[in-house]
Design a protein that fits this description.
alpha/beta, five-stranded mixed sheet, 18% strand, globular
């Protein structure tokens, strides 16, 4: 073996040794970071743009600050309405969300495994059936045979059932037109439907912007509760996290009640509506949240039983099953 060959082999061994040392060092330095990334917990919250309390909680970042200290990252996912949010929760892409009273009924009947965590006290003025300003329709009874637009499986679905029953109109005696809020407003404006069942802030926007007239609100007929729901498996393992979320939500609600005008101004660019419209809608909600209890579950059961009788859900359910064992 020549001296030249020996030198080349020595150089090669030296380079390989250096590379090994570099790789090993990089692994040692990177290992804690990798472990930290793997250990980091993610909380996935589903929300709707109309859910002002959660929208502001997201904008203010207070929940992220509290949970960051526990190594928890918060990710937000926006949905058009409650039924879509519940579907995401059902398939495991959301851990926690906020919806109206009817979507949980439909989702539970479809096999979604979630639990009720908290609820907003009644807000019946935050939803109504609207008709055009110059519509000849003056009473609920006159909706018989008419076209009513609303989001299928949402809280206004229950509103329509309840109000028409009050007006003596059976569920099969009108024409439901299932549309999401934006499409429903377009249909309403061009006269393709006779009425529109909708919630705030879209309700207040239609009244102020296109002179829609309230035929009847939910007052005296429905409670219009809003619910915070959690995926059951997540709730079973993360009650402390859920308690933290609800604490921050409660603080945000308290801030809104003391600062309607400022809250509306902050929401305007997010919700795409004028601040004065949003402020009206904000005042139709209570922004007061309570832990889930048997009384509100009994009200949910009444909705579930009615939906089953009308064949809107495929099977009977017990809303009291959708709680953690020690919650009722």
């Amino acid at each position: 073996m020549t001296d030249s060959t020996r030198n080349k082999q020595h150089t090669r061994r030296h380079v390989l040794a250096l590379l090994s040392a570099v790789i090993a060092g990089a692994f040692i330095v990177g290992a804690p970071q990798l472990a930290q990334a793997q250990d980091k917990q993610v909380l996935r919250i589903g929300y709707q743009k109309a859910a002002s309390t959660l929208v502001l909680l997201k904008a203010h970042g207070t929940l992220e600050k509290r949970l960051a200290a526990q190594g928890i990252e918060v990710k937000w996912a926006e949905f058009a309405a409650g039924p879509q949010l519940l579907e995401a929760l059902n398939v495991g892409s959301v851990d926690f969300g906020y919806v109206g009273e009817a979507p949980p009924i439909v989702a539970q009947a479809a096999g979604a495994d979630f639990v009720y965590s908290a609820y907003e006290i009644p807000t019946p003025e935050a939803e109504s059936i609207l008709v055009p300003k110059n519509s000849p329709i003056k009473t609920l009874a006159e909706l018989k045979g008419k076209k009513i637009a609303f989001n299928k499986g949402s809280d206004v679905h229950w509103l329509v059932i309840s109000l028409l029953k009050k007006g003596g109109v059976g569920y099969g005696e009108f024409q439901p037109i299932y549309l999401a809020p934006a499409d429903a407003r377009a249909a309403f404006e061009r006269g393709a439907v006779d009425g529109w069942a909708i919630w705030d802030p879209f309700q207040s926007a239609a009244i102020k912007q296109i002179d829609a007239r309230v035929l009847a609100s939910g007052t005296g007929v429905v409670s219009h509760h809003q619910f915070f729901l959690s995926a059951r498996k997540y709730a079973e393992k993360n009650q402390a996290v859920i308690s933290t979320i609800l604490e921050e939500v409660g603080k945000e609600g308290q801030w809104i009640r003391a600062n309607y005008k400022e809250a509306a101004a902050q929401l305007a660019p997010i919700q795409g509506l004028d601040a004065d419209v949003i402020e009206i809608g904000l005042k139709h909600y209570a922004h007061i949240y309570k832990p889930i209890d048997s009384k509100v579950l009994d009200e949910q059961q009444r909705i579930a039983d009615t939906f089953y009788e009308l064949k809107l859900i495929p099977k009977k359910i017990s809303t009291h099953d959708a709680v953690l064992a020690n919650k009722t």
